[in-house]
Amino acid sequence: MKKIIYTLFIMISIISCSNKEEKEDKVPKTKIRIGYLYEFAGSSAVAIAKEKGFFEEENLDAELHEFFNGHAAILSMISEEIDFAYIGHAAHNLIIDGKAQILIPNGISKGEKIITAKYNNINTISDLKGKTVATHFGTSGEAMLLAALENEGLTKKDINLLNINITNLENALINKEVDAISTWEPYTTNLNTNDYKMLADITNYSDRIILTSSFVSTLEYINTHRETVSKFSRAILKAMDYRKDHIDEAVKFVSKLNGNSMEAIKEEIDTGIWFSSSDISNACESGDILKWYETQQKVFWHSELIDENVPVTNYIQLELLKSILNTL
Length: 328
Fold this sequence. Notes:
This protein has helices spanning 2-25, 40-51, 54-57, 70-78, 140-151, 166-174, 219-224, 226-245, 247-258, 262-266, 277-286, 288-302, 318-325, and strands at 30-37, 60-67, 84-87, 100-109, 112-117, 132-135, 160-163, 180-184, 196-201, 212-218, 272-274. By secondary structure, it is an alpha/beta fold. InterPro entries: Solute-binding_3/MltF_N, SsuA/THI5.
């Protein structure tokens, strides 16, 4: 009899444990909505996190939404249509008021270029004086141009400056409507021929201009969903680490996500310095992370996109980032 009772006890215990494990497995995932941009910089981390299951590891159900510029993503986030967003340099001027906050730096751009046609006989930035130059105002292209001019003792008043949408800049130069353009990858596809030449790229002015991209969320969302924010941040940081060591695989994931050809995406790989979690951790320790955003903010101030400089700690969740890095 005792043997039967003992056997029944063991069976009940096993069933009880199984039911408990089943319930734990069925804990509903937290749904999050993420805005990403279509190019490698703006989509690689989220594509990797989705494909490699890093969101699932954090018990997150990630819904991805494509945007074609960071400004639209910010507005969508403020309207509570998405919870998180990737933004490139240009959209950072919209978060300086602190309503949106930087969670993670993604990378530093090195894809901006000033390009002219060889038949123009323009060989240096100084030669642009009195010439017609086009860029897309308020973007990294304009920031790059102003830095290059300032380096030569020139201002935008020394050139005939035109505002042309980034998607049309390339054609403006090809159609001889302008003498030079300040643009960025991947919008130079048709200019990679012997008919055109690069006068300068952003790496020539790293002491004057740093254009950082970031993952952001609203201050309200961060304050009310702190655990979810931490889980999202961990998933993205894991993806960034994976990207650092598996760049070719990252290209495949981006192609699958945004539908662009792998050949085109491969050309974007060298347009930025892509951070890993250790890069960010080191930057937090050295203070470089603050310098990146301080330099970036000065770009906005020189471009007259903001009225005053403010402490970058007003819109960077630095302590939160440090605590998350410590959990990896």
